[in-house]
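Example A, followed by Example B.
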Amino acid sequence: MPLVAHTDLPTFQRLREEGEEILKPERARHQDIREMHIGLLNMMPDAALEATERQFFRLVGACNQITQFHVHPFTVDGLPRSLEAKAHIERYYESFETIKRDGLDALIISGANVTQPKLEQEDFWQPLTEVFLWAKQNVPSILCSCLATHAVIQFCYGIERTRLPAKRWGVFPHKVLDRKHPLVSEINTRFDVPHSRFNEIFREDIEQKGLKVLVASKGAGVHLAVSPDGFRIVFFQGHPEYDDISLLKEYKREVTRYYNGDIEDYPPFPEHYFSPKVQRIFTDYRDHVIASRRGNKPIEPFPEAAVLDYIDNTWRDTARAVFNNWLGKIYQITDQDRRIPFMPGIDPNNPLGL
């Protein structure tokens, strides 16, 4: 299912340079293949805006190579943006009004940074809930990532997330709990998923509201769950879209924050992510940074280049399989007119007939 570069969004060229198959619209129009239109509500902060595009575009583009995917990025008000990010959004993103007019076959909602103690106090809360309510009526399935999962579960089921004693981040082993569900069909029964969050919604709270937990970890909690109908809302609490170096970049930001005095404690290593060799390199660098901060001296560059060959991605194949299952099922139930969520005969309250 190759992506179609239906706009001049730079992400298409970046992915093309990385070896992804990206079709030009002229070629796509001459292929007698049904297309699918996927919305990406990108709420990530400026520094991660384009990286988030690439990560989710990559997962979509790696799915079934028969269908053509048009991915439509858009965002909502209430998110602080630099002039550069605003210009990027203005040029390459669609408006929510256009999304509503043209319709979608599926919707992905990214995470976001928060600044308030309660999610409903965030400026983006009302715009986000408006998008969700429209999508619930007009889109076959909505996939929520991390913060979006917490927000939608609170909005729909009244479950507020719980602050963890410490940041949960790293790459954790997970187990499939329901092997018969179509979303986890034919994937590894055990696989890794990255996590990075300060808050959690717990399995027992989710299941009390009738949600179905499909994948969980002893060390990281619930990763994948679905709404009581089995498909209309898909919840990720982890980050299967992450690149192999996403946690490395995050660790680098935390080290910089420590050196600048923004945090008092030196950041721990992301769990199960750095090899022993990488840990030794960063332990030496930690000693240097701590001494430089105490002595008010400049620090040497972060030794990123020295560790890149030792950073492994142990989750992407499974992430692609789950996305392939998700979009494959949507393909089977959505109407050919993307303004209509389901083809005739599909029960919106049990679209997969589970």
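Example B, a separate protein, is given below in the same form.
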Amino acid sequence: MSLLAVGTVAFDDIETPFGRAEKVVGGAATYITLAASYFTDHLKIVSVIGDDFPQAELDFMSSRGIDLQGLQVKKGEKSFFWAGKYHDNMNDRDTLDTQLNVLADFKPVLPDSYKDAEFLMLGNLTPSVQSEVIDQLNNRPKFIALDTMNFWMDTAMESLLQVLKKIDGLIINDEEARQLSGEHSLVKAAEVIHGMGPKHLVIKKGEHGALLFEGGKVFFAPALPLAEVFDPTGAGDTFAGGFMGYIARTGDLSFENMKRAVIYGSAMASFCVEKFGIERMKELNNKAINKRIARFVDLVNFDADIEL
């Protein structure tokens, strides 16, 4: 089934305790679609880049089955750029530079062939832009998921609350869930956020796994213990891509299948952090993904014989 992803396609400068990578390809829509491409062939992307973006990278995205018809290319302008430095704990980071460039006046335009997408993943963008995308669709997708961040809660809360009413699933981290809900307990936070519109809520906890909430049901997926994490950039978007890619592949919106989607998303994110930028995502194959999924199954599978 078709999956439409909307978000940034960008350049990143990344510094971690393991080294530095300059002007690597990044952006939410890039990570989302690359991760999803291992599950579905019907991928569409809406974003904007300058004419400084390498053709070789676009060719690679096309080779993964990603339809680039909705990718705007602005002649004579530069692509979005972000630079950041991670602390030793690899959880905290400092933004060193942000250059909006083409993103400053980005207006998403959906080609006619995109307007009947069955699944929609809205990457982290201005809430008003996310809402504009939904409004351009001919029919409501089977499932709409959205990512956001603290900045929009601080500067565009009213617009964010409006778009939350239009979606099915929200994918955010624990800090964002607490700010959005005003609750410290993530269980209470989920109750408040459900009341804002999203039926499904995924709360990412980085190296501590992810929680899935649907009504009164809860599922926890651990993160895979890794000996080394080279670069956490894009891990959350890669999770979202794996999660939505698996749902688009199966077309199953049951809670049991959502649980499996969380595991697949977590597996894809565990690959992403092993190298800088999207390099690890370029090397994957089905055998490697299946092997990684088996490790997740082993991580949570156990027998218990309890007598009370």
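On Example B: The two ends are 48 Å apart (CA to CA).
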